[in-house]
Amino acid sequence: MRKPAPFIITLFFLAALNGTAREHRYTYQFEPIATPLSFVLGKRVIISSKGVTVSLEQIHKPDFADKFEIFQAEPDIYFFYFKITIRNRSGQPLEVNPIFFSALDDRREFRKPLNYDQLYRMLGKMYPESEFKGILEKELLDFCSPIRNGDEKTAILIFRNFREKGKKCIIKLDAMSMGGRPLAFSFPYNLKRTEIR
Predict the structure, then answer these.
(1) What residues form DSSP beta bridges with 178?
(2) Which residues of 56-77 are buried (b: 16+ CB within 10 A; e: fewer)?
(3) Is a pLDDT exceeding 80 seen at residue 5?
(4) What residues are paired with 26 via a beta bridge?
(5) In a 10 Å sphere around its CB, with 0-12 CB exposed, 13-18 middle and 19+ buried, how is residue 18 labelled?
(6) How many structural domains are present in the chain?
(7) Which domain CATH number covers 24?
(8) pTM (predicted TM-score)
(9) How far is residue 157 from each of residues 57, 142, 152, 195, 196, measured CA to CA in Å?
């Protein structure tokens, strides 16, 4: 049975997650910038290197958002979301740790995707573990076992929203590793900002 989660409690955790009580007053659409290394299909960007293919696509919300009040704000001024698919055809296991992923805008605002422990603690204040643990393990990209050659992994990245009026952003997926050799990907975007009044 769900624990009570009054709206004021939800706002408290949103403020704590963002490190400030001041609300973000903008939403952002990430418009991909094509590069010689990328293939752009709508909002989806695909880059391949050394047998590894990464697809990144901004989504409105993950499928599980309607289960948790903190993700139900419309418009969502607190988070932005990406669906990521990593396909490994390198011939070696691929190690992935999103603690080294980041989003950086041209106002020097730096964001890292929320990890499993952060979301576990936050949701655990409002919901029983049985309602969210399996969803996070299945849907969230977190430190995981190496992706074997021939396999792929699809998951969700959740970032705290930007506060400033950025116009450009780069999402960097650093510190992947194949047989000890580093591998990184960069996805540049123009930011289309909508002010929420």
Answers:
(1) 94, 181
(2) bbbeebbeebeebbbbebeebb
(3) no
(4) 195
(5) middle
(6) 1
(7) 2.60.40.1150
(8) 0.86
(9) 10, 9, 16, 23, 23
